[in-house]
Amino acid sequence: MSKQTDSTAEVLLEKKGGAGIITLNRPKALNALNLPMIQQIYPQIKTWEQDPETFLIIIKGAGGKAFCAGGDIRAITEAGKVGDKLIQDFFRGEYRLNNAVGTCKKPYVALIDGITMGGGVGVSVHGHFRVATEKTVFAMPETAIGLFPDVGGGYFLPRLSGKIGYYLALTGCRLKGRDVLRVGIATHFVESAKLPALEKDLIALKSPSKEKVADLLNSYHMKCTIDQEKEFALDEHLEKINSLFSANSMEEIVKKLKQDGSPFAMKQLETINKMSPTSLKLTLRQLREGASMSLQEVLQMEYRLSQACMKGHDFYEGVRAVLIDKDQSPKWKPAALEEVSDEFVDSCFKPLGNDDLKLGEETSASSLAVNTKQHISSAFKVAGF
């Protein structure tokens, strides 16, 4: 059993009692996932899944500030500029890991305390249990950097209630604390300070079933009164979100926002106008297609899109503007939605032949689609939807 407890390692893999514990350990980088971390976590999940002495898997982030703020975008950007194969290896590895989380046969508990974005969502949202706290900040902000909400975003986002997933994907809207539970991203809500006790109790469970894990999480969830009275931040806008983001094209969404003219609609319009037009069109189609696909099919589609983005202009320009120079004024090419042709969008979704993402033995988990839909809908029930 791998016991990597060297505190300087970027990911710590430990066995405590019947629990396998994964700690993302790059606190200075907000626990952003890089390829070496992915390459250690994936085989460890597979090993624990087969191990009769491991009953559940817990994943958490070190440092108290973030669970995981995303993938290591800087490394991917540098690799893409010089044509390094990291741009294939990283996305392949990351999506295989997302699929391993989604098909995991052992109860999988993600403690999403702090910032949880992009790649951090990918290693948590597809698992059985996601525990949010008052410190959780969720977002899929990829359209702002010329990418799209990947890591299975095309699977879980369109399955959220109404058009919330489309709204979150296109605008990169941030949700905090209990709101992460209310939309169905989290399954439970527990005070941040109680997580060490919860973890201890999870580890102490004797040969726990999913039901036993759920019972324990529910007991913590029920006792947590923090922010209980707080209204859901999107509550007053739900009706508008559902009608404005139900259009079949980005141009139509923009038209609806303009016609609506309310302060909320104008704010969304302003946000959307800053995003990469190419990313917006890819994202809308990704979610519309993903709504009726299995997680495996979605990840394969997203791998194709990732490679199209790596060959394009907007990803590098978005990373420059948002993360490197931080001038927040990317020069997108094309600069307008009307200039992003349907032919171009089609080309990004085309199969890659031998280079397509293959998910191997895990694709046999046909019950997955049903499971994740159940997780998400059960989260709605907890949240009172």
Automatic annotation (TrEMBL):
Associated pathway: Amino-acid degradation; L-valine degradation
The enzyme's E.C. designation: 3.1.2.4
InterPro entries membership: ClpP/crotonase-like_dom_sf, ECH_dom, HIBYL-CoA-H
Keywords: Branched-chain amino acid catabolism, Hydrolase, Mitochondrion
Keyword Mitochondrion carried by entry: yes
Gene Ontology annotations for the cellular component aspect, listed alphabetically: mitochondrion
Cell location: Mitochondrion
One GO molecular-function entry: 3-hydroxyisobutyryl-CoA hydrolase activity
Superkingdom, natural source: Eukaryota
UniProt GO BP: L-valine catabolic process
Gene3D superfamilies in the cross-refs: 2-enoyl-CoA Hydratase, Chain A, domain 1
Domain (Enoyl-CoA hydratase/isomerase) ranges: 20-349
Catalysed reactions listed for this entry: 3-hydroxy-2-methylpropanoyl-CoA + H2O = 3-hydroxy-2-methylpropanoate + CoA + H(+)
Similarity comment: Belongs to the enoyl-CoA hydratase/isomerase family.
Record function comment: Hydrolyzes 3-hydroxyisobutyryl-CoA (HIBYL-CoA), a saline catabolite. Has high activity toward isobutyryl-CoA. Could be an isobutyryl-CoA dehydrogenase that functions in valine catabolism. Also hydrolyzes 3-hydroxypropanoyl-CoA.
Protein name according to UniProt: 3-hydroxyisobutyryl-CoA hydrolase
Biological source species: Ficedula albicollis
Gene field: HIBCH
